[in-house]
Structure formats: structure tokens, C-alpha cells
Design brief:
136 residues, mainly alpha, 4 helices, 77% helix, 0% strand
């Protein structure tokens, strides 16, 4: 009886781990696509963004566009690894989501709603990847 309960608990834990990893992978992919689009917008046309002359972390919008574009491509690539449940993808996913949160925080004055939305999405990615503990 005890092994049946343990076996069921193990199956439930594995299903939960798989579900949260897939959730994080999908969210990471979507956030990566949004970062990719924002990068393209910043590179192609700086007029879309708000002009903030007195911002402490002022950068050239074309440079920010390239940063967002690269982070988006890496995020989309890592999400493909998460669909295979690769351990390296979980570690890199947390790292890239953390970097993307910092990049989006620094670009809040240029596009505030989009930045805050992406910060929330990347925070959920980190949560989804860190909450699951694999049983040995």
C-alpha cells in the first residue's frame, strides 16, 4: 500500500514538474517574440518610443533595439530546449529571464506598459523554472 501511494505521489509530482516547465517554455517563447518585435521596432523606427531626455540610464534606442533583439532570440532558442526538459535549458532560462528583466526595467521610460508586461512574464518564467524540484 505504501509503495502505491508513493508511486502515485511521484507520478503527480512528475506531471506537475512537466506542466510548469511547459508553462515556462511557452511563456519564455512568447516573451522572446515580444522582445524580438520590440528590438526590430527600435532598430527600424525610433519614433515609436517615448522621448525621455532626463533619464538616468539613457541609451541610444538603436542599441537598446539590438539588445532586446538578441535577448529575444536567445529566449526563443532556450524555450526550445525547455520543451525537451533539458536541465541546461532550465538554468539558462532562469539566467536569460533575469537579464531580460533588468533590460526591461532599464527601458521602462521608453515603453512603460510593454516593459512592465514583459517583466511580469519573465518573472513567471523564473517562478515556473525554479519552483519545480526533481526527485532523484
Amino acid at each position: 500500500m505504501a509503495t502505491t501511494t508513493t508511486h502515485r505521489h511521484s507520478e503527480t509530482a512528475e506531471a506537475t514538474a512537466g506542466g510548469l516547465t511547459v508553462f515556462a517554455a511557452v511563456l519564455l517563447f512568447i516573451a522572446g517574440v515580444l522582445d524580438l518585435f520590440r528590438g526590430i521596432m527600435a532598430i527600424a523606427n525610433d519614433d515609436v518610443f517615448v522621448n525621455t531626455p532626463n533619464y538616468v540610464f539613457k541609451f541610444d534606442l538603436t542599441s537598446w533595439g539590438w539588445i532586446q533583439l538578441v535577448l529575444g532570440v536567445i529566449a526563443m532558442s532556450v524555450s526550445a530546449g525547455l520543451f525537451t526538459r533539458a536541465t541546461w535549458a532550465r538554468v539558462v532560462g532562469v539566467g536569460i529571464a533575469g537579464l531580460a528583466i533588468i533590460a526591461n526595467f532599464l527601458s521602462i521610460p521608453y515603453y512603460p506598459v510593454w516593459s512592465l508586461t514583459l517583466i511580469a512574464m519573465y518573472a513567471f518564467v523564473i517562478w515556473g523554472l525554479c519552483i519545480v524540484r526533481r526527485d532523484r
